[in-house]
Design a protein that fits this description.
By secondary structure, this protein is α/β, with parallel strands linked by helices. It contains nine helices and 16 strands. The protein has a seven-stranded mixed beta sheet. A three-stranded antiparallel beta sheet has the order 13-14-16, covered by helices on one side. It has a two-stranded antiparallel sheet with strand order 1-2.
């Protein structure tokens, strides 16, 4: 394992964009287009930020032709994607593997696309060790659509279901379920501004509930389950929205009846929603269930009942391949732990200059919310960070402050640069 050693100076390439017409250097014009195209080149200007972390986690080196125009994107989703995946997609965009077509132009029923979706599924199965008794569905409509699809498929209108609400997304899932079932909130963190997860033993679950629903990682509030409650309902069903920590660590799929996730945080572009569902739960949708929300229809048709989000599925497949190449989810989790550790340490060691409101034991490895003691400096923090090519650090509009989303694809170097910037900002404003 390579060792990344610091202290070191990150020599940041600060770009002054120069607009050139018809340039002689065309770093990314991979296609033989003849028209006059507008391209950017950069004049690097060095600024120096000292970074004091010493770490033993392998960070992948930037690809040789790394663009000076790429930023460290801390967005919550759509979010940063692995650079090598983007480059691979770029190289295959015009002509996918000698087919003479882009993936966007292929029939979803042709042999080329079938090979893409089948490989994506088998790689995801390998990554998450998904047991054979589970189906994997590649759907559309975002996780939000699943908020309704779940009660429509798994219970009747008068059936009780349990919701454990640890943040805004769990709350949104609950509100949608109220239209299609009789959900009960067995615990809500709302009064404590969603900074905690309760002890599971104390939860009063309804023995008649048809399932227990959780949001495994609350993207806005940065609260993440580190282990999972045992459902004490008649069906023994636990259901999890894993949109924002999907494929960020190993998960024992057999603990869940159904897992769902929008792709646009850890595994691809928006437009793909992945559902992993135990096969015996399929086939019980209510009659009124729209065809697009019926798991049976999608399972029987192998996610090809109608036109699926082909290009998005292809991108997810490239990400799955990349995660396998990194050594699988155990390795990915180690990297995520390291990144989160150095960021939370920087916050906790700032003597109150920065604060993370979330209880330490349930802090998310993916979404790190923090505030400034001097809240009037927050806008300045975000602005200055953006100037140094660290973007999308503003917290969600509902909670304010800042949020750094550090998904799988965020390199360690991005977090180190952020931490160095935070220290520098503190030194200038404390
Ligand atoms: N659940 C979680 C945990 C999320 O983070 C999001 C999106 N940010 C959603 C659900 C909603 O996802 P979508 O926008 O794909 O419907």
């Amino acid at each position: 394992m390579a060792m990344v050693t610091s202290p070191h100076s990150l020599l940041l390439q600060n770009s002054n964009r120069q607009l050139l017409k018809n340039p002689t250097t065309k770093p990314f014009n991979a296609f033989p287009l003849t028209s006059t195209r507008t391209t950017y080149t950069t004049t690097p200007k060095r600024i120096s930020i000292t970074c004091a972390a010493t770490t033993h986690v392998q960070d992948r080196p930037p690809t040789p032709a790394q663009s000076q125009d790429r930023v460290f994107n801390f967005a919550a989703g759509p979010a940063i994607l692995p650079e090598n995946v983007l480059r691979k997609a770029q190289s295959e965009l015009y002509d996918w593997r000698g087919s003479g077509m882009s993936v966007m132009e292929m029939s979803h029923r042709g042999k080329e696309f079938l090979s893409i979706i089948q490989k994506a599924e088998s790689d995801l199965r390998a990554l998450l060790e998904i047991p054979a008794e589970y189906d994997v569905l590649f759907l559309q409509g975002g996780a939000t659509t699943q908020f309704a699809a779940i009660p429509l498929n798994l219970c009747n209108a008068d059936d009780p279901v349990d919701y454990l609400v640890t943040g805004s997304w769990g709350d949104k899932a609950l509100k949608e379920a109220q239209k299609f079932s009789k959900p009960k909130v067995i615990w809500s963190g709302k009064s404590e501004k969603y900074t905690k997860i309760p002890a599971f033993e104390a939860l009063e679950q309804n023995p008649d509930a048809k399932y227990l629903h959780i949001c495994a990682n609350e993207t806005i509030h940065g609260v993440e389950f580190k282990n999972y409650p045992t459902p004490k309902n008649q069906t023994g069903l636990l259901i999890a929205d894993m949109s924002s920590n999907f494929c960020s660590k190993p998960v024992d799929i057999s603990k869940f009846g159904l897992i769902y996730a929008g792709a646009q945080k850890n595994v691809g572009p928006s437009g793909v929603t992945i559902v992993i569902i135990r096969k015996d739960l399929i086939g019980n949708a209510r009659e009124i269930t729209p065809v697009m929300l019926d798991y049976k229809i999608h399972a029987e048709n192998k996610s090809l009942y109608n036109t699926p989000p082909c290009f998005g599925i292809y991108m997810c497949g490239l990400v799955f391949e990349d995660l396998l190449e990194q050594g699988g989810l155990k390795e990915v989790e180690k990297k995520n732990q390291k990144k989160a550790e150095i960021l939370y340490n920087a916050i906790d060691e700032s003597k109150g200059f920065y604060r993370c409101p979330v209880e330490k034991s349930v802090r998310s490895l993916m979404n790190v919310p923090f505030t400034l003691e001097k809240s009037d400096l927050e806008a300045e923090f975000v602005k200055e960070a953006a100037k140094e090519k660290m973007v999308q650090l503003k917290g969600h509009r509902s909670v304010g402050g800042m949020r750094a989303s550090i998904y799988n694809a965020m390199p360690l170097a991005g977090v180190e640069k952020l931490v160095a910037f935070m220290k520098d900002f503190q030194a200038r404003h404390a």
